[in-house]
Design a protein that fits this description.
alpha/beta; single chain; 14 helices; 352 residues; 6-stranded parallel sheet; 5-stranded parallel sheet; 13% strand
Length: 352
């Protein structure tokens, strides 16, 4: 059973973001399965081990399983960890790099799993979605009867980060002009669960943000957090959001053809949230799949399989499979068509 080391650039200051929070939460989850530590590699911190120090005193392959995740840093980190057991915890896709043969992929969504299933078809692939923190499941007020305790104080909640200019500059003013109480959340909030519990409708529109960056929405926790708090959700359906948000059932599309359509549907959802909320059983199935208990089982299975995989490779029992490069696949297909061409010509254009 290999100890785990989660590599992050740092845990404070400019490195604080949703991706870091998810990685730290995952490290806490795996700590219940085996020894787990967080290792920084850009910023030295008094209470965290530093990558340079560990590599200087440990000869490969050593014993730990290293988990890398940080986007554009992944290729460089994999080169530095060459010869050591390592896995890629894949959030967003589209960065453009490839993976060495044999490096397992821990995909946080089916969207990301499919991306690496095409680009690294012979690498071990696992699906380990991000977990909702327990507070969302325990304190989210999704079970309360809408209207039984009066309307929620916020009609429409928007989180500014990653939100489109369409929502912020056009839709929000138009909703306010209709008399709706719209709050745009900016900056740090100590109690996000409480904030979401106070909103009837949540808008989440990240498609433009990720398209501008050229990478994908890796998982999309905020929409699921909104659903856990009993909010009606209007969301974009880009990338991994399409994994879980069945439009018309679990959520509703934002930017649905015209702004007038959005205004009418959001106003209707504020007036009668119950008619726009997802079926309770369907929602509970989604949330159960994102619970720490369910994800603990997934991680346990994935870690056992990765231990066995790296033992085979490091003990020389087997060689890592390689996917053929794209050019060779295309060349093989062209040659196949050329070999069949004389048969077509001699048979009136039909294969025998």
């Amino acid at each position: 059973m290999r100890p785990l080391r989660f590599l992050v650039p740092g845990t404070t200051g400019r490195f604080r973001c949703g991706g870091l929070q998810v990685e730290l939460q995952t490290a806490q989850l795996t700590a219940s399965l085996r020894p787990t530590s967080v290792v920084t590699y850009r910023q030295r911190e008094a209470d965290q081990p530093f990558l340079d120090d560990l590599l200087a005193r440990e000869e490969p392959p050593a014993h730990s399983l290293w988990i890398v995740s940080w986007g554009f840093d992944v290729p460089r980190l994999l080169r530095r960890l060459c010869g050591r057991p390592v896995a890629y915890h894949a959030h967003s896709s589209g960065y453009g790099f490839g993976l060495p043969p044999g490096v397992p992929v821990l995909a946080v969504s089916r969207n990301t799993l499919g991306y690496w299933g095409e680009r690294a078809a012979r690498n071990p692939l696992f699906l380990v979605p991000n977990a909702l923190e327990a507070a969302w499941l325990e304190r989210g007020e999704r079970r309360r009867e809408q209207g039984a305790a009066g309307p929620r104080p916020i009609d429409v909640l928007v989180q500014e980060r990653k939100c489109s200019a369409y929502v912020l500059d056009r839709l929000v003013p138009a909703l306010r002009a209709r008399g709706l109480r719209v709050e745009v959340q900016r900056g740090w909030v100590e109690d996000l669960v409480g904030l979401f519990n106070s909103a009837a409708v949540v808008l989440y529109d990240s498609a433009d943000y990720w398209r501008g960056r050229g990478v994908s929405e890796g998982f999309g926790l905020p929409p699921i957090e909104a659903l856990a708090c009993g909010c009606v959700l209007f969301s974009s359906l880009n990338h991994a959001l399409a994994d879980s948000l069945d439009p018309g059932l679990l959520g509703h599309q934002i930017g649905c053809g015209t702004m007038e359509a959005d205004l009418e549907r959001i106003a209707a959802a504020v007036a009668d949230p119950g008619a726009w909320l997802p079926p309770p059983a369907r929602l509970e199935r989604l949330l159960e799949g994102c619970s720490e208990l369910a994800l603990r089982h997934r991680w346990e299975r994935a870690l056992e399989e990765m231990d066995a995989h790296w033992s085979r490779l490091l003990q020389g029992q087997a060689a890592a499979l390689r996917s053929p490069p794209g050019w060779s696949l295309r060349l093989r297909q062209v040659r196949g068509r050329l070999r069949r061409w004389p048969l077509r010509v001699g048979n009136g254009g039909r294969l025998p």
